[in-house]
């Protein structure tokens, strides 16, 4: 094999792993409770982007756990809590949400991530909107 081809192939594989476009991204979460008068629009950061994955040709020979794909997920995060305005006294008016500090390509952890993208669900308000900038 040509040495230039081998070096180019190795460089391409290494660059593919480092060029994954998984990073914190600005996102607006819309939160409303049935009992409260307003919908809260919260500016935060989430992990979003592309992660390099490989589809194995030997799917029937591998364990199911070996076939999971990498996703863009949290490496470091913290939670903030916002107050939803216009809630009656008997309702808990707080909403906690994650803020991404850094991201990584890895397995999706259902302890703190929603690993299924639901296309039916939309992110909008049905009540008057208040903006939360923290």
Automatic annotation (TrEMBL):
GO cellular component, one term: extracellular space
GO BP annotation list: G protein-coupled receptor signaling pathway
CDD domains, per database record: GHB_like (cd00069)
Signal peptide: 1-16
Quaternary structure and interacting proteins, as annotated: Heterodimer of a common alpha chain and a unique beta chain which confers biological specificity to thyrotropin, lutropin, follitropin and gonadotropin.
Main location: secreted
Stored PROSITE patterns: GLYCO_HORMONE_BETA_1 (PS00261), GLYCO_HORMONE_BETA_2 (PS00689)
Descriptive protein name: Thyrotropin subunit beta
Domain Glycoprotein hormone subunit beta: 21-125
GO molecular function: hormone activity
SUPFAM superfamilies: Cystine-knot cytokines
Family designation: Belongs to the glycoprotein hormones subunit beta family.
Keywords assigned: Disulfide bond, Glycoprotein, Hormone, Secreted, Signal
Species in which this protein is naturally found: Ceuthmochares aereus
Taxonomic placement: Eukaryota, Metazoa, Chordata, Craniata, Vertebrata
């Amino acid at each position: 094999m040509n040495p230039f081809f081998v070096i180019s192939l190795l460089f391409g594989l290494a660059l593919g792993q480092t060029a994954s476009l998984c990073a914190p991204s600005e996102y607006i979460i819309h939160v409303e409770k049935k009992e409260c008068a307003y919908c809260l629009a919260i500016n935060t950061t989430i992990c979003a982007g592309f992660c390099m994955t490989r589809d194995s040709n030997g799917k029937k020979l591998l364990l199911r756990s070996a076939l999971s794909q990498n996703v863009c997920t949290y490496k470091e995060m913290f939670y903030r809590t916002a107050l939803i305005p216009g809630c009656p006294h008997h309702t808990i008016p707080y909403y906690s949400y994650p803020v991404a500090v850094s991201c990584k390509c890895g397995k999706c952890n259902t302890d703190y991530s929603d690993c299924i993208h639901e296309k039916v669900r939309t992110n909008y308000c049905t009540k008057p909107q208040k903006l939360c900038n923290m």
